[in-house]
Structure formats: structure tokens, C-alpha cells
């Protein structure tokens, strides 16, 4: 099982679009794939118009619910785990509170535990894994069930980002054809270096995916592609071309594969081949 975090600290670069379509492309290539939504907007579930389950990523991480109980099938060989919406934003606070609770002296802990029990938060006393490793621990039982797990991250750099990197084998960075998106990718690289050093990881950026590539803006796109190549070399993948069908797909609950859009299918099939070839 290979886990890939899809990250860029700049919003609007196509992270969810890449996660959804790469996931579907991998599934169509015969790879059992799971998309985990780590964004409070819950876009992945909304995209597929999937059912709302009682168990989401939030319950997995803060209550220890089983990951398999949070999965929802959306296409053949393609499942998703919904984020839990706004609740997900409370995860960093709750996990840090749990660590604080475990550091309390016995008398203080007893008093605090009674208060938390009244609020149905007594599970904070049962946290075993350090906060950054909670997601990795939650996903571990899925080994052998999925070939790929894609973690779709929000732009905000929080503990959730750290958790995604710790849980991943590789990082994929979508970069739109503009300078600020390149800056965002550099910020991701710096953040990964910090996490790698702190937690003794080998995780690094493996794929940089140019998005919103528009041949009508050939000079701008060419300059951005040249800058990306200078920064990341062979990690830069084929570009995802700007595409009306690709933009419209979420409103229909579809992907370019459902819509038989040739341009979109070609771009994401090529990206999937690149990912599979990196095994």
C-alpha cells in the first residue's frame, strides 16, 4: 500500500481535482484506491454526492473508530473517507488537549477526567499514539485492502498537514500556472523538511503536477514550467491541461472518465502511469 499526500499551501491549485481524477484513473488501471479528505470543506464527499456516514475522518482520529467503517464506495475499486466537515478543524486542539491531559498530576487528572466525562470527552485519556502519528495509526489496518491511499489536504498549514506527511510515503504537489503557486510549493518543501527531520522520516516530494496548463498563455506557462523544472527536475509530471469539462465535472458529480472527455482522460491516465511506475 502506497500513501500519497496531495499538498500545496496555496489554495485554488486543483488539489481536490487531482485527487479525485488520479484516484479514478488508478482505479480504472486496476488499483484499489482510497481518497481521504483532510479538508473541512468536505469537497470529496460533495463531489461524488456520497452518503454521509456516522464515522468520518474526525471520528477515526479523535474517537479511534475503525477506518474501514468510514469508507464509502463511489466507483469500482474507488472508495473515499469524508473529512467530517467543520468538526475536523477541532482535531489539532483536541489532540493537543489529550496530550496535556496525560501530563497532568494524578489529583488534577482525576478532577479533569470527571469534567471531561460529563462532556463525553473521556476518550482523551485513552490516547496512546502521539498526535502527529494518529492518522498513520488509523490508516494502518487498511494495509492489504488498498493499493493506493491519496490524502487530499487543505491549504492551511496546521497539525493536520503534519499528520498527512507522517502518514504518507510520498508527497504530490499540484502547482497552477502562476508564481504564487510555485511559492506555495516551496513552502511545502520547507514544511516537509521540518517534519522529516523532527520525526526521522524519509517522506519527500515525489511528484510536482502542473495544473491549469493553457496553451493560449504559452509564454506564462512555459516560464512556470521552466521554473518548476529548475526546482524539481524529473519530479515534474505531465501538465494537466485547462479543460471546460474538467471544471464542470464536480457540479454533475462526475469525473472526466464518466464524461468520456478525451483530453482529461489522457492527462490523468498519464499521471496514473507515472505514479504506478514509481512503485
From TrEMBL:
One Pfam family of this chain: CbiA
Residue span(s) of domain CobQ/CobB/MinD/ParA nucleotide binding: 4-256
UniProt xrefs under InterPro entries: CobQ/CobB/MinD/ParA_Nub-bd_dom (IPR002586), DNA_Partitioning_ATPase (IPR050678), P-loop_NTPase (IPR027417)
The organism's place on the tree of life at top rank: Bacteria
Protein name as catalogued: Chromosome partitioning protein ParA
Organism of provenance: Pelotomaculum schinkii
Source species taxonomy: Bacteria, Bacillati, Bacillota, Clostridia, Eubacteriales
